[in-house]
Structures are given as C-alpha cells and as structure tokens.
Design goal:
This protein has a five-stranded mixed sheet with strand order 5-4-3-6-7, covered by helices on one side. Strands 1-2 form a two-stranded antiparallel ribbon. It has two domains: about 20-95, Winged helix-like DNA-binding domain superfamily/Winged helix DNA-binding domain (Arc Repressor Mutant, subunit A); about 115-215, Nonspecific Lipid-transfer Protein, Chain A. The chain has helices spanning about 20-25, 30-40, 45-50, 60-70, 90-95, 100-110, 120-130, 135-140, 180-190, 195-200, 210-215; strands at about 75-80, 85-90, 145-150, 150-160, 160-165, 175-180, 205. By secondary structure, the chain is α+β, with helices and mostly antiparallel strands. Helix content is about 40%, strand content about 15%.
C-alpha cells in the first residue's frame, strides 16, 4: 500500500517518520504543552488561559491556539447565551495526551533542578494530584476534598484506590480549602501545616480538618535522580 505524503504549510518540522518526532511536530513549540495542560479540565476563555500561563504574550498564545487547532488537538466554540463567549477546548483526540502529561510530570519531578516553589496554576495542581497519588498509601480511603481558587471550584475524589479530579461545586466535599494553588502545593508536597497560612489569612478551611491531613499524606514528590 502506498503511503500518503502529508505536506505541512508552516512551522518547523523534524522530517522524521518516527511517531515521537511527529508528536514534537504537533506539540513541540514552546508553550504548546502548557496550553494543552490548561485545557485538560474543560473549556477555557482566551483571557483565562493567558492569566494562568505566566509570562505568555497574547500574540504567542494566539499562535499556539491556532497551531493546535490546525493540528486537530484544540477546537473553539461559542457558548450559548447568556455567556455568549468564545472558548477553546481539547478535541477527543486531544484529551488522549493526558497519560503523556502524567508520565512526563512524574519523570521531571525527579530532576534535581525542579523547583516546586515556582508558580503553579489551578489546573496544574489538580493534575499533579493524579500524577503523584500513591494508591498504596490511600488504601481503602474514601473522601471528597474541595478546593476553591478565586472563583474556580475543584473537587478531588478518592475511592477504591483511585483518584479523580474535576471542576465543580464543592457542596458535597468533606472538607473545602480556599486559597491559592502554590499554597496547596506547599501543604501537600512541602508538608507545611495549614495553620501557617491560616494564621496569615491566606487560607481558610471548612469541614473536617482530619480529612485534609489524611488526604495530604497520600502524595509525595519522588526521590531526585542521581545525576
């Protein structure tokens, strides 16, 4: 069977038939992967994407979204009234990249140069929970933990040794933490006590504090690679 030659109109390409090389053709430009990351938990407006991608310019974000749209990874649509705003979202095929993020994140966290104190977005901290979750530590735990970052609510559910994260109302959560993503990272991965941030008015907790303490014990950063 004769293979079809696909011609790309723009962009830097590796001109290599390897699937991994073509993957880099699709998502290898700077910021592209992070744009995809921010769409992992549902549609986003342009302004919200730019807000959570620290340092990206409007021009570069536009270019990346256009490139990902041409590649079939991202699509855009207009929300119905009363919102009537344009949003970007991953296509079903686009969502299939999620395991790549989990493997890449877990691998890179072992780098001695990884700095967990750098800025982190709400979506990123949620995705990190799925990456760093230790089912053996969780055992038979069953809990729902809510997080509120500004006007964005998220829910993390742990049950039967599995973890799921999603955007959504926190009404049914056993405990709800209202703060900013970097402070959650400090509590969960840096094991900083909640009280340290509560005392400064940087974090509020409603519900069962013991549930959050147990939740935080299910996550640990991996040991650094011997390089």
């Amino acid at each position: 069977m004769k293979l079809e030659k696909i011609t790309y109109r723009a962009g830097r390409r590796y001109h290599d038939a390897c699937g991994a090389a073509h993957g880099l053709d699709l998502i290898g430009e700077r910021w592209a992967l992070l744009v995809i990351r921010e769409l992992m938990m549902g549609p986003r407006r342009f302004g919200d994407l730019r807000k959570d991608l620290h340092g990206i310019s409007a021009n570069v974000l536009t270019q990346r979204l256009e490139g990902l749209e041409v590649s079939g990874i991202v699509t855009r649509r207009k929300l119905p009234p009363p919102a009537s705003v344009q949003v970007y979202e991953l296509t079903p095929w686009g969502y299939e990249i999620k395991p790549v993020f989990m493997v890449l994140g877990g691998w890179a966290a072992r780098s001695p140069r990884h700095d967990p104190t750098l800025p982190i977005s709400a979506v990123s901290i949620m995705q990190s929970f799925e990456t760093m979750f230790d089912a053996a530590l969780a055992g038979d735990a069953a809990m729902t933990v809510g997080f509120v970052f500004g006007d964005e609510p998220f829910v993390v559910q742990i049950e039967n040794g599995t973890i799921t994260t999603r955007r959504g109302h926190t009404d049914a959560a056993h405990v709800v933490v209202t703060t900013q993503p970097p402070l959650v990272a400090a509590c969960v991965y840096g094991k900083v006590p909640l009280a340290a941030f509560e005392a400064d008015g940087l974090m509020t907790l409603t519900g069962d504090r013991a549930v959050f303490d147990r939740f935080a014990s299910f996550f640990n950063l991996p040991e650094k690679a011997p390089v």
